[in-house]
Design a protein that fits this description.
- This protein is α+β, with helices and mostly antiparallel strands and 296 residues long.
- It has helices at 18-28, 92-99, 151-159, 212-224, 283-289; strands spanning 8-15, 32-38, 46-51, 60-65, 78-86, 102-109, 112-118, 124-129, 137-147, 162-168, 171-176, 184-189, 202-209, 233-234, 238-244, 250-258.
- A hairpin with a 5-residue loop joins strand 15 (238-244) and strand 16 (250-258).
- The longest helix is centred in the C-terminal third of the chain and has 13 residues, at 212-224.
- The protein is globular.
C-alpha cells in the first residue's frame, strides 16, 4: 500500500467560452485565478487555474476552455461531480443562480446537506458545508466517480492508501486517513452508457505528493502493480505523471512543489499570460488570438 499520497491536488475540466468560465469561477464561486497560461499540448487553448488566496494544492480547479466545444454526454467512466467544502450554504442558492448556474438543488448525501448545481460550462458541481460560519469555498470536499463497476477502482484506491468509510445507496465513500489534502473520493455505481467527453467533462483528477522523490516512488509502485504510467512531465508549477484508472477516469499524481509563485510574484498571480518555455516563441500570436481576460 502506498503511503506517499496526500489527498487531492487539483481537478481539471474541459470548459467552453473562456470569458464566461473565468467570470463564473472568480465572481460566482469566489475562487482566485492563480495562473493564466495555455495547454501544453494545444497552446491555442487557455489553461486557467483557480484556487484559494494562497494557491494551495487541494483547492485548485483548472479549466481548458475551448470556445464552441461540444457539450459532454454524462455517463460512466467519468467524474460525475466535483464537490467543494464551504462553511455554510447561506446565500449560495441565490448567488449561484445570479451567476448563471442551473439546476441548483439542495439534497442529502451521507447524512450531510449537499447543494448541487451545473456551472456555465456544463460541469456538475456541488457545495457541502463543513460546519463553519464562513460561506466561502475553502477547497475541495470530494470528487464523485461514476462507474459501471466500482470494484477495480476501489481496489486501486485501497492500494493508494484509501479505506472504505461508508455507503449511501449506490455510492461507496473512500477516505485517506491522516491526509494533508482533501481526503474523500466517492464511487457511484451506474448503469448509464459510457460518458462522452466535451464541455463540462472532467479531464482528470490529480492526487498530491510532496515532491518528485515521493512521486517517483509512487510511479515505480504503480508500474510494479501493472499500471501503464507516463514518464514524469514538467508542468512548470508541479511535476506530473498520468495513468488510466480501471473505471476509465484519468488519474494524475502531481507534486506540491515548486508551486504557482515560481514564475511571478504571489501578489499578482493570474494576471499576466505565462507561457511554457517551448511556447514562448508563440507569444505574439497567442496574445492576439486568445480571448482577453480581466485582471484577477
Amino acid at each position: 500500500m502506498l503511503t506517499q499520497i496526500q489527498g487531492l491536488h487539483h481537478v481539471t475540466t474541459l470548459g467552453r467560452a473562456p470569458l464566461a468560465n473565468d467570470t463564473f469561477v472568480r465572481l460566482g464561486l469566489g475562487l482566485r485565478r492563480v495562473k493564466k497560461t495555455v495547454n501544453f499540448d494545444a497552446p491555442d487553448v487557455y489553461h486557467l487555474y483557480f484556487g484559494n488566496a494562497d494557491a494551495d494544492p487541494g483547492t485548485i480547479l483548472t479549466y481548458f476552455p475551448r470556445p464552441n466545444a461540444r457539450p459532454r454526454t454524462a455517463g460512466t467512466g467519468e467524474v460525475g461531480r466535483t464537490c467543494f467544502a464551504v462553511g455554510t450554504l447561506a446565500d449560495w442558492p441565490e448567488r449561484l443562480g445570479a451567476a448563471g448556474a442551473t439546476d441548483v438543488t439542495l439534497a442529502k448525501r451521507f447524512d450531510q446537506d449537499i447543494l448541487t448545481f451545473t456551472g456555465v460550462d456544463g460541469d456538475d458541481l456541488a457545495l457541502i458545508p463543513n460546519g463553519g460560519v464562513d460561506p466561502a469555498i475553502t477547497g475541495f470536499h470530494s470528487v464523485d466517480l461514476r462507474l459501471a463497476d466500482i470494484g477495480p477502482t476501489r481496489d486501486l484506491l485501497e492500494f493508494m492508501g484509501y479505506q472504505i468509510a461508508g455507503h449511501d445507496g449506490d455510492t461507496t465513500r473512500m477516505v485517506l486517513q491522516n491526509a494533508k489534502r482533501p481526503a474523500l473520493i466517492d464511487l457511484t455505481a451506474s448503469d448509464l452508457p459510457p460518458a462522452r467527453q466535451g464541455g463540462g467533462a472532467v479531464h482528470h483528477i490529480a492526487f498530491s505528493v510532496a515532491c518528485r522523490a515521493r512521486q517517483l516512488e509512487v510511479r515505480e509502485a504503480l508500474i510494479d502493480d501493472g499500471y501503464e504510467v507516463t514518464e514524469v512531465r514538467d508542468r512548470t508549477y508541479f511535476n506530473a505523471i498520468y495513468f488510466r484508472s480501471p473505471g476509465g477516469v484519468l488519474f494524475e499524481v502531481a507534486t506540491d512543489d515548486p508551486g504557482f509563485a515560481v514564475d511571478e510574484p504571489a501578489a499578482s498571480l493570474g494576471n499576466a499570460l505565462r507561457l511554457p518555455a517551448q511556447h514562448e516563441h508563440l507569444r505574439h500570436d497567442l496574445e492576439e488570438k486568445l480571448v482577453p481576460l480581466p485582471d484577477a
